[in-house]
Design brief:
This protein has about 270 residues and is an all-alpha fold. It has 13 helices and no strands.
C-alpha cells in the first residue's frame, strides 16, 4: 500500500490533479447542497455544456479558454436562475434547452475548425494531464473562497436555501446570495471541467449532496458529510484510475455512484 501511494505521488501531474480535485470536490459538494435544496441541481449540467461550448469557441479563435468560459458561464448561471423563476419555461426544460444548444454549438465549432482534437476531448471528457499549475492555484483560491464564505454566511445560506420568502422577511438580500451562489457555481464548473470533463462535472454537484441527505437530516450534518464524502470518492476514484489505467473522471463518478447506493441501503435499513 505504501509503495502504491509513493508511486502515485511521484508524478507531478498526479499531485496537481489531487490538489485541484480535492478543492473542486469540496466546492462542488458545498454548493451542491444549496442547489439541490433550491431545486436547481441540474444547473451544473447546463453550465458544464455552456462551458464546453465557450471553450470550443475560444480554442477556435486561439483565445485563452478560461478567459472566455468564466464570464460566459457566469452570465449563463444568472440567466438560468433569473429566467427559470420568471419565465413560462421552467426548471429542467430550460436547462435542457440551454445545455443541448451549447453542447451542439461547441461540437459544431470544433468540428469545423480544429476538429475533435486532444484539447477539445480533454474538456469534453476530462484529463488529469490537462491540469496545469495555474489551474491548481485557481482551484486552491476558489476552494478557500467558497469554504470561507460558507462558514461566514452559514446561517443566511441555510435560510435562503430552505425558504426564500422567510429570508426576505428577515431582511436578507436573497438576490445577492443567489447571485453569489451562481458565480461560485459557474467558477467551480469551469475549473472542474479540466479534470472531470463537461459530461461528468455535474455529478460532483449532485451525488455527494444526495448521498448525505440519505443518511442525515440536519443541514449542518449534511454539509459536513457531503464535503467529506466528495473528497473520499475523489481519492478512491483517482486511486482506481491510477491502478487500472482507467479514465479519472469516470472512476470518480463511479465511486460517487457506489457511495450513493451505500447511503441508500443505510437509509432503507434504518427504516426497518
Amino acid at each position: 500500500m505504501t509503495h502504491f501511494f509513493v508511486s502515485l505521488f511521484s508524478y507531478s501531474f498526479i499531485v496537481r490533479a489531487f490538489v485541484s480535485g480535492i478543492m473542486i470536490s469540496i466546492c462542488a459538494a458545498l454548493l451542491g447542497i444549496v442547489l439541490v435544496l433550491k431545486r436547481y441541481s441540474m444547473i451544473g449540467d447546463g453550465l458544464s455544456h455552456v462551458g464546453f461550448g465557450s471553450m470550443a469557441i475560444a480554442l477556435a479563435l486561439n483565445l485563452a479558454p478560461l478567459a472566455l468560459s468564466i464570464p460566459v458561464c457566469i452570465a449563463a448561471a444568472f440567466l438560468l436562475l433569473r429566467v427559470s423563476s420568471s419565465s413560462n419555461v421552467k426548471g429542467d426544460a430550460l436547462v435542457a434547452l440551454i445545455s443541448s444548444g451549447a453542447l451542439a454549438i461547441g461540437i459544431l465549432v470544433a468540428s469545423l475548425t480544429s476538429g475533435l482534437n486532444t484539447d477539445v476531448t480533454a474538456f469534453l471528457f476530462g484529463s488529469i494531464l490537462a491540469i496545469t499549475r495555474t489551474d491548481m492555484i485557481i482551484s486552491i483560491v476558489l476552494g478557500i473562497v467558497v469554504i470561507t464564505l460558507f462558514v461566514i454566511f452559514y446561517n443566511r445560506i441555510f435560510t435562503v436555501a430552505f425558504d426564500e420568502a422567510f429570508a426576505r422577511a428577515g431582511g436578507i438580500y436573497v438576490a445577492s446570495y443567489n447571485a453569489l451562489i451562481a458565480i461560485l457555481t459557474a467558477l467551480t464548473i469551469v475549473v472542474g471541467m479540466r479534470l472531470m470533463g463537461a459530461m461528468m462535472i455535474s455529478s460532483l454537484v449532485v451525488f455527494p449532496s444526495l448521498s448525505a441527505m440519505r443518511v442525515f437530516k440536519s443541514f449542518k450534518k449534511v454539509t459536513i458529510c457531503a464535503a467529506i464524502l466528495s473528497v473520499v470518492c475523489f481519492v478512491i476514484g483517482m486511486g482506481v484510475s491510477f491502478a487500472f489505467s482507467a479514465p479519472a473522471g469516470a472512476s470518480i463518478v463511479c465511486a460517487n455512484v457506489a457511495a450513493f447506493l451505500l447511503c441508500l441501503v443505510i437509509e432503507k435499513v434504518r427504516r426497518i
